């Protein structure tokens, strides 16, 4: 029977980030970490026009800087120098700029494949061992940890199991951890597009009568599009010819980046706010999308999960108790509760406010955008939320 101090179930961006955050302290303590992942990472990064991407907040950059990884990640990232927020057909708008906030960039957009490659290459296999491709079929609680049964019928015991296997976690359900789910009644259409003009590090949050859209800068003058629509309409837009899609996108977005000349593969994802009813148990932590999945329009989901991972690693490495000690895990969650509540609340309220076409609400948010641009304290608060710094002292 093999035994590890920590077993991280899910080697995606959140699980790999946690492993890297723990790595130096685990080496000093003699801990063994096992990362279990069903999909093997590639040996080399392969550029792709259609690569999915993540928006990293300025706070996430600071975390990766402390890990010595940011310089590598930044080689293929696009900085967000300003964010333009507008409401289609109305005069209210607001601009957030890196210069005003005194930071090199408000955030960065990075292809997931590149970020994953940077993380995986930084892992020390003497401390973090891979079981990949492998999948955990069953988890059984023990007095001193968990016993994991894998798909090859091998077993692994661990002091602490970290469940980071995504928003559709079957293991979360198997363990009887309930989920609060609030569907938005919307679908996110995701695609990369190319404008005729240079984006110059501009990101756009645009609110329309059909739902919000975001356009984020990518390397090679591409933009990552998140377009929220009603389910049938999103599926229609996914399937229409390229020229028709670009024409409809142009009509909804406008000409701030000139015309749109190319769109890549289009994907649709149903949207809901989901939160696990338990994030910690003795010898167990639920992390990443398995703990909370947010609407992508505000770009907060991965950044919150990364802060959770950092806080968990800090707590485990500053306590003398074993990694699975429930009191230690509860102190981690208590320390993150305010950040989680603020971030989930901010993302949810912004989404619901700007997805509502009722005239009174539309007028109110239009005035709110005007006020945001005219009132420095309100603008500062909004910018700190967007940069992932909202729960930190000023």
Question: How would you describe the overall organization of this protein?
Answer:
There is one protein chain. The N and C termini lie far apart (49 Å). With 394 residues, the chain is an alpha+beta fold. The protein is globular and about 60 Å long. The longest helix has 29 residues, at 326-354. Strands 5, 6, 12, 13, 14, 15, 16, 17 and 20 form a nine-stranded mixed sheet that branches. It has helices at 13-29, 58-66, 70-73, 98-101, 112-122, 170-174, 231-239, 242-253, 301-318, 326-354, 359-374, 376-386; strands spanning 2-9, 33-36, 53-57, 77-80, 82-87, 93-97, 107-111, 128-131, 136-142, 145-150, 155-163, 179-195, 202-208, 211-217, 223-229, 260-263, 267-276, 280-281, 284-286, 292-293. It is built from twelve helices and 20 strands. Helix 1 runs parallel beside helix 5 (112-122) and helix 1 packs parallel to helix 9. It has a domain at 2-50 and 123-180 and 273-351: FAD/NAD(P)-binding domain, CATH 3.50.50.
Shape: globular
Counting H and I runs of at least 4 residues, what is the number of helices? Answer: 12
What's the CATH topology name of the domain at 2-50 and 123-180 and 273-351? FAD/NAD(P)-binding domain
From the alpha carbons, calculate the radius of gyration and give it in angstroms: 21 Å
Beta-strand share of residues: 25-35%
Helix content: 25-40%
CATH class of the domain at 2-50 and 123-180 and 273-351: Alpha Beta
Number of strands: 20
The unreliable regions are 359-375
Main sheet: strands, sense, barrel: 9 strands, mixed
Query: CATH superfamily assignment of the domain at 2-50 and 123-180 and 273-351?
Result: FAD/NAD(P)-binding domain
**What structural category arises from helix and sheet content?**
alpha+beta
Mean pLDDT: 87
Q: Specify the CATH architecture of the domain at 2-50 and 123-180 and 273-351.
A: 3-Layer(bba) Sandwich
C-alpha end-to-end distance:
49 Å
